[in-house]
Amino acid sequence: MTKLVLSTSNIMNGGPSIARRPTAEKSNTELTTSLRTNFIASQQAFSSQSNGSIPNGDSANTLDHQYPPITSWTTRDKDSLFVPSIDFSLSGLAEERSQYDITVKLFYLPNIPISRRCSQTEEAIELVLKELHVSSIDLLIVSFPDIAFDADDEEDEDDISDDPDSAQELDEIQAMSQTWRKLESLHEKGTIEHLGLSEFGSQRLARFLPMTKVKPSVDQINVRDCCVVPKPLILFAKQQGIELLTHNDCTNILPRGTVRELLGPGKGAGILAGVGKDNGDGLDGEVEPQWVVKYTAVVKNRGVVENKGYYAVAELKDRS
């Protein structure tokens, strides 16, 4: 098994190889575009050093063009393959840590065992701290899979019944509380100052909060299907001292097919071999995305985003 560690680098650099996207764009589009751009930039950097050439992102849509050797623009560290290679000595923030608000959002992906979330959390936070050269972050927001805020549910805030769906949701919340304990331990160590959730309505919050020692400071909701945050949620959040924020992220931010498209032959980076085709040194196997983390560093006194990027991890397993 190979762990693929995909990265975008700082997408706010604004150079010709970095895509600048509107802030209202869904973050799965921002993520995939930024990953693809970073892959191409890294391949072109090798190509320029070796006096070769590779197609750009628009024309790299056939299987007969030559990719640079995988080892030339990626780095292997034990069972992990960093795509592209990362020189952490070149990253970091321009000013002192105290000048920034650093927010991190961690996406746990569907169909991944709940038991992996604690180690995934540690791995994601460690990468962000290393990327930004800091020892702590101000806010960590976690996004659990298969949860979507529904404003219509808020109309029945007093109806917390014992139907099967309600019992299933309670089981899911208990599983989330197990993950939350890991976040609380990072908070106690001083690694994370504040914790946050995503897509929790008032009913889900009411069930979840009694299971926590450290209450969430923030609840992010996607209000794409309604124009106004429902009053029951506003009132409940105010009572609990929880700040409501809106977002435009996708819960399933990196489906398996998207990973294969990004890394496969043709329009992809050529890391993975094509199904049933010989793709040179492309890696063969089944790819499964594990988690995604987004980080943002804002300069406090100017309100300017200086550093923003993503890491995504997928596993490549032998075909059974």
Which descriptors apply to this entry?
single chain, 320 residues, alpha/beta, ten-stranded mixed β-sheet, 7 helices, globular
Q: Which helices and strands, and how do they pair?
A:
Blueprint: E1 2-7, H1 27-49, H2 70-73, E2 75-77, E3 80-83, E4 100-108, H3 117-132, E5 137-143, H4 164-188, E6 192-198, H5 202-208, E7 218-221, H6 231-240, E8 243-246, H7 256-263, E9 286-299, E10 304-317
Parallel strand pairs: 1-3, 4-5, 5-6, 6-7, 7-8
Antiparallel strand pairs: 1-10, 2-3, 4-9, 9-10
Terminal CA distance reads 12 Å
Mean pLDDT: 87
How do the SSEs run, as a string of H and E?
EHHEEEHEHEHEHEHEE
Query: What is the strand tally?
Result: 10
Judged by helices, strands and strand pairing, the structural class is alpha/beta
Instruction: Count helical runs.
Output: 7
Helix content: 25-40%
Biggest pleated-sheet summary? 10 strands, mixed
**Shape field:** globular
Rg over C-alpha atoms, rounded to the nearest angstrom: 21 Å
Q: Main sheet: which strands, in order across?
A: 2-3-1-10-9-4-5-6-7-8
Strand content: 15-25%
Report low-confidence residues grouped into runs of 5 or more: 15-24, 55-64
3D structure, described in words:
This protein is an alpha/beta fold and 320 residues long. The model is unreliable at 15-24 and 55-64 (pLDDT under 50). The protein is built from 7 helices and 10 strands. The longest helix has 25 residues, at 164-188.
